[in-house]
Amino acid sequence: MRWSKALIPTHKEDPSDAETTSHKLMIRAGLMRKLTSGVYSYLPLGWRTIRKVETIVREEMDHTGAQEIHMPVLSPAELWKETGRWDVYGAELWRVRDRNGRDFALGPTHEEVVTDIVRNEIRSYRELPFNLYQIQTKFRDEIRPRFGVVRAREFMMKDAYSFHRDEDSLDETYRIMCDAYSRIFDRCSLTYRPVEAATGAIGGSHSHEFMVLSDTGESEVIVCDCGYAATDERAEGKVAPMTSGEEPGEMKPVDTPGMKTIEEVSEFLGVEPWRLVKTIVYEVDGRPVAVLVRGDREINESKLAAALGSEVVEPASPEVIERTTGAPVGFAGPVGLDGIEIIADHSVEPMANIVVGGNRADVHMTNVCPGRDFEPNAYRDVVLVRRGDACPRCGGPLDSFRGIEVSQAFKLGTKYSESMNATFLDEDGTAKPLIMGCYGLGVTRTVAAIIEQHNDENGIAWPKAVAPYSVEILAVNVKSEDVRNLADWLYRELCDRRIDALYDDRNESPGVKFKDADLVGMPLRITVGDRGIKKGIVEARVRATGEESEVPIEGAPDRIAKIVETLP
RNA sequence: CGGGGCGUGGCGCAGCCCGGUUAGCGCGCCUGCUUUGGGAGCAGGAAGUCGGAGGUUCAAAUCCUCUCGCCCCGACCA
User: Fold this and answer.
1) Topology classification of domain A42-235+400-451
2) Is the model more confident about A454 or about A336?
3) A17 touches strand B (CB under 7 A)
4) Could you give the C-alpha distances from A103 to A83, A100, A428, in angstroms and in order?
5) Closest CA to A483 of A532, A516, A524
6) For strand B, is any atom closer than 7 Å to the CB of A261?
7) Which of A10, A80, A146, A566 is packed most tightly, with the most Cβ within 10 A?
């Protein structure tokens, strides 16, 4: 491609609305433009990279025997009502209505649609297992789009769905998919890590996410030297018990006017946060549940939901809190809290003389002792694990890092096949629900992740496999006939060798062209200038390393083709 | 949804508090000449209903009301 004819609108300055490196660079290097919040147009350079990532994904998916299909973005509400997700998925499900008032969803994921296809076409165990995938635009009405294409409302995803007669078969495909993902991310030159994950709105029994290590990532990952790795939602771990070692004192109320938060109460009473216990009222399947956790810790709602055997737990509304505790928000406590289930985190059990809400406005209770002054219905692990806690496997100290979640695999089991009555006839002649797995991979998000890991102060430094072009030919001065002729010739020769080359033939000053070359970041830059021509050479420079070499003009196309081959 | 911030030529911003000629600056863009190895120089030029609507006023980018959009933080952690 000749730059003079290309749409590559670069910017010198960072866009005002971008925060992260990848977002800024994707705008500055002319990969994409925002249309509206969380929605982007991909310009030629951006689209070329997306297609290269897609190609890698396709190759690796096809290699596993998965079959590519293409499902609609638009799906009728009835399908979502069959599985209950019309209600459960929440505001994130992008709903639209047709002229006749019928409800539809713009697909955020396609379990319902694919299961509908399969239940209509599959009869026998003999047809199993198989794996269907698509690469498609997804819609999620995100509460807050962020970081450019990392959290967008419209984005591209590869989603695969596998169907099985038994768990063993599912396990096998799940493993194969995880392996395929490793190959995909290896080929994208990403530093990543598969971690155990919670199942969330998709559901299912077992899940892994692939995390690309990045400080700008939205996910917190808990890791241990022993190999344990899980998202913070999922992570287990032992919280070091904290006890004052004091003799149990006499429980008594204290006035805490307007002190609603742990911080406020802690400061007001001069007591460290860990000696408080917070009581959070949740609504679980329509009933209120009080959850206790040590004051210096947070509740993990995902683990809470699992502990209660419920799919969705949400913090109760102020009205429900007042009704169940008799106090306004901020003063709930377990003492004398009747008629409501109380779940306490293990961290609460060994404590004594703790401070809790008094179930009365502006009152807290002190010297409260679990077991003496109240008895929870159960002690469970519902705490959000963090760095420094003990590893659930080896007991060693847990560490944490930030990551961008580029893919997630789930063992769905029969969650969708049962609710949608998708069955097959097994060998014994009985109808059984299909066992399913699903495997998502964020394509556009992966592009952002690649840029997060491959850039420097001058711009993007693409890995070759996903670079929009492998080589940029930079003609220093196109007014020089020698330079123009040589660069033209080189460009043609490389094109003839089917090397994708970007040829900066613009009549711009050298400075502009060098800066732009660094910004858009093709892996190899070939500089053609009078200076080199005098010496009978062109210059090759590797973008990622800055490594430079001189290539004799004689035989340069072949030599350059060779260099391109060796690039990472 | 709550809080905060921002909307001024294509991009990045100033001006607004304290209303008053033709609304500025940098970059970019167009024309010409010069220049050509790390964001060139000179000269000339085009381009903005100051997000939108309403109001106050002799007069509004500037003050008031409403509204739309974008960004950030938070979203029931008691």
Assistant:
1) BirA Bifunctional Protein; domain 2 (3.30.930)
2) A454
3) yes
4) 16, 9, 41
5) A532
6) yes
7) A80
